[in-house]
């Protein structure tokens, strides 16, 4: 029989980014249909301040979502640093990509932000924050509906049942319940690389209060951003399998390609600090959600608004319709960030010679937008700078040359000053079973022969 003290309207598993926002957001919804606050249990395995190397930079879109949830004060008194855009560095060149309209993000120590979110959730009316390890889900007999969890409180040995009309699982990328909830649709996360992190002391980034993205040839990108008055986080993307001597690999392959004024501090950090690692895993896009604090906070905003009108949380037909609406409402932001992040990661972390041409072309395309006074959020950076929930269309069709046309033009120019071959020559090249390394690019140059005239037409209206 259920213990009335352990019976709630909603149970949330995981007091991290999404869980805390959900608890506070749902606790504040009242309407004519629901005059009293919900009773919510927020269960977390450990309430000790976490020490992680990710989840330290919140984009302007995430800050806006926090304001909508009434949680923007969680960014105060934690030493957060304003972030006003990005600087992208490639082979000594750099391009400034500021956020538009004076918008700002925030960067911070992850653990301090989490503790601030937890404190905010704990103060919300009707929320019980419980330190307990959830061992299993309670499924109603004869159905697939979860109506509770079985957990052990800290310092206790006996498991307790917690019951709720809704059970929301938000236990992060290392979820213990993803496979159980998804069933046959579950796919094991694919680890593509690892972030190797350290803290640099008292360094000056290329542009103050801007994140720095350094493109490293033959390796993944390097991200740097300030998280305190004296602390700057560096995250180095290292592909799997990890080298046997990680420190030597970074010193030999990565550090020489980073800004020279930062190299001494990076070497000091490699010598003095224990390198921290975090796997970068690809999770197939599913209803349960996608990565990123900005996406998570916006998911909470949408779900909170949809649940506001629900009178009976036990009415599964109504809840099912709500979840269906939420699934599609979150797509414009979530899918855009998710798809572009995967595509751009594959591009900027590629070792393939042909993809390297595209990588350089993309960087030059971003540089070009400095000529158009529209380089705030081009398509290339919408993945790392999701400043707004909407609209996206105006950013996906910027003025000036289109990215595909520009890349074809750069391919024609960058692969050598060679006249375009004749059609007969191209046919001979493409018929070859094992083309020489330079033959495929030669054939591609033929396909690009008319691009320069097209680029001139594309550029002209933007320059008028």
From TrEMBL:
Residues annotated as signal peptide: none
InterPro entries according to UniProt: FAD/NAD-bd_sf, Squalene_epoxidase, Squalene_monox
Highest taxon, organism lineage: Eukaryota
GO molecular function: flavin adenine dinucleotide binding; squalene monooxygenase activity
Recorded topology in the membrane: Multi-pass membrane protein
Cellular component, GO annotation: endoplasmic reticulum membrane
A GO biological process held by the record: ergosterol biosynthetic process
Main location, first listed in the record: endoplasmic reticulum
Domain Squalene epoxidase, chain residue ranges per copy: 166-288, 291-366
Class of the enzyme per the UniProt entry, highest EC level: oxidoreductase
Reactions listed under catalytic activity: squalene + reduced [NADPH--hemoprotein reductase] + O2 = (S)-2,3-epoxysqualene + oxidized [NADPH--hemoprotein reductase] + H2O + H(+)
Function of the protein: Catalyzes the stereospecific oxidation of squalene to (S)-2,3-epoxysqualene, and is considered to be a rate-limiting enzyme in steroid biosynthesis.
Membrane spanning stretches: 363-385
Family: Belongs to the squalene monooxygenase family.
Name of the molecule in the record: Squalene monooxygenase
Subcellular location: Endoplasmic reticulum membrane; Microsome membrane
Pfam family, one: SE
E.C. designation(s): 1.14.14.17
Cofactor(s) required for function per UniProt: FAD
């Amino acid at each position: 029989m259920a213990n009335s003290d352990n019976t709630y309207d909603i149970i949330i598993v995981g007091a991290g980014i999404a869980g805390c926002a959900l608890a506070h957001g749902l606790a504040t919804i009242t309407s004519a249909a629901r005059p009293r606050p919900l009773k919510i249990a927020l269960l977390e395995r450990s309430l000790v301040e976490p020490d992680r190397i990710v989840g330290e930079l919140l984009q302007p879109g995430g800050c806006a979502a926090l304001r909508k949830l009434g949680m923007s004060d969680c960014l105060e008194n934690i030493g957060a640093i304003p972030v006003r855009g990005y600087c992208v560095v490639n082979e000594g060149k750099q391009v400034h990509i500021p956020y538009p309209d004076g918008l700002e993000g925030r960067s911070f120590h992850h653990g301090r932000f989490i503790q601030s979110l937890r404190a905010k959730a704990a103060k919300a009316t009707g929320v019980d924050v419980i330190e307990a390890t959830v061992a299993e889900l309670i499924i109603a007999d004869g159905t697939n509906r979860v109506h509770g969890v079985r957990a052990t409180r800290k310092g206790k040995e006996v498991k307790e049942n917690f019951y709720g009309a809704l059970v929301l699982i938000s236990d992060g990328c290392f979820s213990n319940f993803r496979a159980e909830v998804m069933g046959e649709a579950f796919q094991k996360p694919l680890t593509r690389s690892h972030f190797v992190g350290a803290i640099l002391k008292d360094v000056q980034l290329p542009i103050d209060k801007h994140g720095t993205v350094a493109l490293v040839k033959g390796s993944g990108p390097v991200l740097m951003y300030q998280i305190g008055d004296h602390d700057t986080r560096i995250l180095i993307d290292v592909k799997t399998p990890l080298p046997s001597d990680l420190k030597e690999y970074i010193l030999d392959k990565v550090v020489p390609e980073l800004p020279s004024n930062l190299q001494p501090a990076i070497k000091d950090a490699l010598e003095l600090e224990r390198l921290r690692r975090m796997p970068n895993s690809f999770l197939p896009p599913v209803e349960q959600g996608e990565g990123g604090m900005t996406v998570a906070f916006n998911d909470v905003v949408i779900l909170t608004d949809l649940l506001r009108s629900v009178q009976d949380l036990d009415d599964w037909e109504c809840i099912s319709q709500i979840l269906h609406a939420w699934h599609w409402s979150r797509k414009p932001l979530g899918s855009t960030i998710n798809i572009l992040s995967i595509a751009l990661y594959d591009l900027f972390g590629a070792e393939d010679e042909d993809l390297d041409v595209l990588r350089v072309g993309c960087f030059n395309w971003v540089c070009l937008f400095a000529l158009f006074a529209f380089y705030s959020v081009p398509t290339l950076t919408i993945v790392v700078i999701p400043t707004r929930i909407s609209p996206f269309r105006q950013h996906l069709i910027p003025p000036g040359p289109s990215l595909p046309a520009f890349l074809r033009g750069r391919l024609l120019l960058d692969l050598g000053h060679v006249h375009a071959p004749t059609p007969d020559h191209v046919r001979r090249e493409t018929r070859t079973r094992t083309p020489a390394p330079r033959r495929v690019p030669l054939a591609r140059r033929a396909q690009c022969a008319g691009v320069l005239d097209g680029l001139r037409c594309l550029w002209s209206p933007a320059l008028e």
